[in-house]
Inverse folding.
């Protein structure tokens, strides 16, 4: 019998992968096994995938704020842009949903406390990274001009209320808990993700004229510079993470991750069949994606996770793995520290002023300082307990 042609073989593998995951998806949760599964060790490939993006994260933000347009449009800028828009925030949010299914502390009190602390951290971060340099008169004039703001405390309200990923995480955590309490949470999270993917454009930019209510509506469906990660459509990723977390409990992990990669590749292909998004701003399609773009990012992240799972099996543990795991475990601390340093140092670098050499120096410097300070804080915390 002749060998199956490679394209047909790949298609058969893709169909088989989707069928197997659908079979797992239609099974009710095995609640009797949850205590054992909740205590399972961290999945190394997830730490490696997340840690890689966390390690690159300061460099992404430095190029975004410090570098001249020629640097942003260089091969370096293209690579960092690819990491930011591919396995970036979408990956963090998907893994947030997966982690939720394995948490030992999922109860209403813990969830409310966690969401509250995330919100406090979000507004404290806005205070330190924006209001401190603003109060000292250190904000670059061209940045304020771009935002149509003044270099005084009349701009404080705007900076304090900017919605970022920590605001999103706080709200998403509450939603995840609500859905996780349902009997077939894996099914309902999947349905909710599809509904949000399709329906998000219908809730963008809603307003009532009532200040406090409009602020909440911005967090749900706003856009930069007011809100960078609106609930719609970004909630798709943690919801899909809930479903994938369930599948990790019900299916063979290695086979599932292989099928996840094949499914992700199929999703990317399907998403590419849709016409490209047309937006008035180049950056808007990333922060507010339509259904096809959201589908593309979801498929890409699933494929990315599968690749890192394969790498974790093929390459033995090493120093780089330990570094990435450290970054993954300390993602929130690293996120906060690097943003504070980057925003404070705008007083020295200027906004979009650095050439390639200066950009590289600042990338290495801030990344190194951030990691060392995170390590020092961890050591201090361990000694205090």
């Amino acid at each position: 019998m002749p060998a199956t042609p490679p394209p047909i073989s790949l298609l058969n593998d893709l169909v088989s992968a989707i069928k197997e995951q659908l079979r797992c998806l239609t099974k009710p949760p095995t609640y009797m096994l949850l205590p054992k599964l909740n205590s399972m060790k961290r999945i190394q490939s997830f730490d490696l995938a997340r840690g890689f993006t966390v390690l690159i994260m300061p460099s992404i933000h430095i190029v975004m704020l410090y570098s001249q347009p020629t640097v942003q449009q260089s091969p370096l800028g293209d690579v960092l842009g690819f990491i930011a828009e591919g396995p970036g925030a979408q990956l963090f949010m998907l893994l947030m949903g997966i982690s939720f299914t394995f948490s030992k502390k999922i109860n209403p009190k813990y969830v409310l406390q966690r969401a509250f602390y995330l919100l406090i951290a979000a507004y404290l971060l806005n205070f330190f990274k924006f209001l401190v340099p603003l109060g000292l008169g250190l904000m670059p004039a061209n940045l304020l001009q771009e935002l149509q703001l003044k270099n005084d405390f009349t701009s404080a309200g705007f900076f304090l209320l900017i919605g970022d990923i920590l605001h999103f995480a706080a709200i998403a955590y509450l939603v995840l808990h609500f859905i996780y309490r349902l009997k077939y949470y894996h099914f309902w999270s999947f349905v909710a993700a599809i509904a949000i993917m399709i329906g998000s454009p219908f809730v963008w930019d809603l307003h009532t004229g009532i200040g406090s209510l409009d602020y909440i509506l911005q967090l749900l469906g706003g856009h930069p510079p007011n809100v960078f990660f609106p609930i719609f459509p970004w909630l798709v990723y943690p919801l899909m993470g809930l479903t994938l977390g369930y599948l990790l409990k019900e299916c063979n992990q290695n086979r599932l991750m292989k099928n996840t990669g094949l499914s992700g590749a199929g999703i990317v292909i399907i998403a590419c069949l849709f016409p490209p998004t047309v937006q008035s701003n180049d950056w808007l399609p990333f922060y507010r994606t339509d259904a096809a773009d959201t589908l593309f990012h979801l498929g890409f992240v699933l494929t990315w996770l599968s690749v890192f799972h394969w790498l974790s099996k093929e390459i033995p543990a090493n120093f780089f793995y330990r570094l990435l795991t450290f970054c993954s475990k300390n993602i929130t601390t690293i996120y906060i520290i690097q943003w504070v340093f980057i925003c404070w140092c705008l007083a020295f670098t200027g906004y979009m002023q650095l050439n390639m050499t200066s950009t590289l120096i600042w990338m290495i410097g801030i990344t190194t300082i951030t990691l060392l300070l995170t390590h020092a804080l961890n050591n201090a915390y361990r000694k205090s307990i």
In short: The CA atoms of residues 308 and 314 lie 10 Å apart.
